[in-house]
Amino acid sequence: MDSSDQRRKRKRSLKPTHHFFSLRSLLYFFSFFAFFFILFRRNTPSFHHLVVLPGSSTSSSIHRLFSGELTRFKIDDRVLFPDHILILLSGIGIGSWNLVGNGKGLECIYRNNYTEEEEEKGVAVLSVDEYNDIQWLVRCPLRPTNFSSVVTLRSRGAITVADTTVVAMNSWENLAYEAVLDGNTAVVFVKGISHRQDKASDPNRFRCHFGFGNQNYILASKALTAAQEVVRCALPKSLEIHPEKSQGIRATVSFQLPMRNHHHRTIFVPSVAKLSSSKFEKNTPKHDLCVCTMLWNQADSIREWITYHSWLGVQKWFIYDNNSDDGIESVINKLDLEGFNVSRHVWPWIKTQEAGFSHCAIKAKNECNWVSFMDVDEFYYFPNLPGHGALRTLVSNYTSSPSIGELRTRCHSFGPSGLRSPPKNGVTVGYTCRLQRPERHKSIVRPEVLDTTLMNVVHHFHLREGFSFLDVGQNTAVINHYKYQVWEVFRAKFYRRVATYVADWKDSQNEGSRDRAPGLGTEPIEPADWRLRFCEVWDTGLRDVVLANLDNVLSRGRYLGGIDI
Ligand SMILES: *[C@@H]1O[C@H](CO)[C@@H](O)[C@H](O)[C@H]1NC(C)=O
Ligand SMILES: *[C@@H]1O[C@H](CO)[C@@H](O)[C@H](O)[C@H]1NC(C)=O
Ligand SMILES: *[C@@H]1O[C@H](CO)[C@@H](O)[C@H](O)[C@H]1NC(C)=O
Ligand SMILES: *[C@@H]1O[C@H](CO)[C@@H](O)[C@H](O)[C@H]1NC(C)=O
Ligand SMILES: *[C@@H]1O[C@H](CO)[C@@H](O)[C@H](O)[C@H]1NC(C)=O
Question: Which of 208, 261, 329, 470 has the highest local Cβ count within 10 Å?
Fold first, then answer.
């Protein structure tokens, strides 16, 4: 919408209220215009903080560096994690960064202010990642001894681009880190507000704020729900009328801290969270079935998992990537180009799996009738039905149900099945021996009927009142969970687990957890009989289905020409 459109619209929407000159409406008028004044000014970003250091740096050399498009960047925010510093960057034409190798060659700059003359130290960045349409993520190592904590960025070589604004270093312990529009509400993800597992908090303890920076919140609204560090906020009127203008607006919450003499102090939680909304066209029909998953370094297994489940009827994939470095991005891009509708979302926030699932549920809500929350080593299997489209048919059957909001399926845990090395033809064909009794279950939910708090525990969401779950019988469907794979895979997976509920598989505190391999100590040493463990019944059901129907999927990375998907 151009600004003349905007003005016309604004006129129209204001007309009816002309007759009411209450103080309230005057205030409303004022904040409304103030807000749009700022919004329109914002359309021409100013990069006056950007400094091109002397030397060979001229704007034309920057031009060359960034392959034809003038790219300038600005550090928006910094977050201090226990083992690295996360930098959020925005800039003009920042999308062209991939042309220069995803910013490889960038250095994190630390300054030494302990010595007389200022000394600088450059250390290669840990990673650069595309974050959203407007920002990039750069990870820097913690500051070296005797150096100040970053940090600016500079590209290696002749050209130096630096940002001299020192934005506050945010602590990860206390931070609003994501914000997303959901209908006429905004959902803000906040670390460090009281967190009770599986219990809602009183939303009246919080207030929501919107604006352009941590000292610049110009709009406020009511908190509607608060649970698990997720606060749902009413949208201020001006944003409700023009949701497209909310993109990039910073959001946070405040709360009252009791002081002496019945006084309270208002505490604003620092924020790096900028509102985003899904760009989905309202008129497009929804997919019947989508999948949300969170993963780390599973480039090798994702193709088998996605092609198989697409054959079962999954139409769209939201992959939340926790800092993978195994080239999964290119595997995902390739699958997407092949028509599988796969998108990757960088999720750099540590130990926030529940929040990530809530975030994904909101993203999927506009596009999907049903969403499955599952892991890359889990495969639905229909023992008594032709598999093609079966999962989609199953869920479609309940899409207009007045009471069913979740379908639960039991999981069978498979063992190493005698193998010593990862199966060449994929897990569904390679692993065929499992424990007899099913363990746990996984859910497919209707995002429309989730509880507004978005509360969820280990893959299970609370449903809105009046809705409940249905157990899918084991004769209809089960999930083959390739949980205990050959040692090298198992070890890697449990060493760096994406889930929150097991901090570290070596951590003896969690020894009793059901997620630990029974009988395995806390040492990362292969038990002598590992390959024979967890094997009570041979089960070649899914293997046979895959070999009969998807044989040409099996050689990894090959394009699946023959399958009708
Ligand atoms: C170094 O700089 C930081 C931030 O600018 C400051 O907080 C600190 O006190 C300084 N240290 C010394 C020794 O001057
Ligand atoms: C840090 O500074 C102190 C005091 O100047 C010095 O004694 C120490 O060796 C320095 N450490 C390193 C790692 O440079
Ligand atoms: C991908 O999405 C489009 C519509 O958005 C749909 O027509 C197509 O069938 C989907 N692909 C798969 C494999 O389901
Ligand atoms: C991502 O991986 C790190 C380990 O590097 C882990 O600490 C963190 O909890 C993971 N993120 C999520 C959302 O689980
Ligand atoms: C669909 O649901 C109805 C009842 O709601 C049931 O009778 C029927 O068997 C279901 N079909 C499938 C394929 O699950």
Answer: 208
